[in-house]
Amino acid sequence: MRARDLPPGYPAEWREAVSHPFLESVRDGSLPAGAFESWLAQDYRFVADLLVFQARLLARSPRPDQAVLAGGLVAVEAELGWFEEKAGERALGLDAPFLPATGAYRDFLAGLENEPYPVAITALWALEEVYLESWRGAAPGHPDYREFVEHWTTPEFADYVAGLEDSADAALRDAGEEERERAAAAFLKVCRLERDFWQMAWLGGGR
Ligand code: HMH
Question: Which of ligand 1's atoms lies nearest the C-alpha of 128?
């Protein structure tokens, strides 16, 4: 099993993770302001949890994966600062309470700490691949949101996701059948969590 075989293996779940009216509205500008702000505040919460997850994953990663994971950790910390800046520009507080989809994602990330490495690295690759694909679908994006589209569609981000894919592939190659099954299940769970996250943001706009 290779990481890149997972999306075509679960086409319906993948499609729902990477396409949503939220993203279409980012593209054409029809998004209600409240939806974007709800997404921003919740994603800031998510990224803070992701940083903790990645730090712990780095600590147990095999030597060949340390460069990509250490780079990702630094990038995620910088991303928190970037969110703070963007929220400041929009006069938006970042202390919003966790909404259910964000809390469910937090629980999932915490649970991955008890999963074998191949499962956790596959999940990390999957959630970043979802973001790459989702924001590519929203490109170039309405001017109000364009910098967010650009943030997750840069060649550097694509390279990072490709590096994670290589790490996931190496781990899956050495994994046993049960670990591979758990990795596929984690991929599916990421798809559902991502779908629910877009939906949460969309409803946050009052729709
Ligand atoms: C919900 N999934 C979600 N937010 C993100 N920022 C990413 C993935 C990618 O880092």
Answer: 9
